[in-house]
Amino acid sequence: MPYHKNKRQSFEAAQQAYVQLQEAIENLHEEDADYGHQHKVAEQELDEAIQVIQKAQVTASEHQKRQLDLYSQEITKYRQQLLE
Description:
The chain is an all-alpha fold. It has 3 helices and no strands.
């Protein structure tokens, strides 16, 4: 039972990290005075999402792994966006 709970909690943490990254990216507006701060927050959210997703993949079920792989693919796109 604890193993399944841990799997679920890890996956949910990965989902949450991904959503927070999406929100940080959506809040990026180059014309805003605090763009530099927004960009830094987005980079921090990116780093955190990568770490949390990697940890979740260790205990994830096959279905969860497929979803985590999709998150990872999207994160790669977000990383490119932040580097531009």
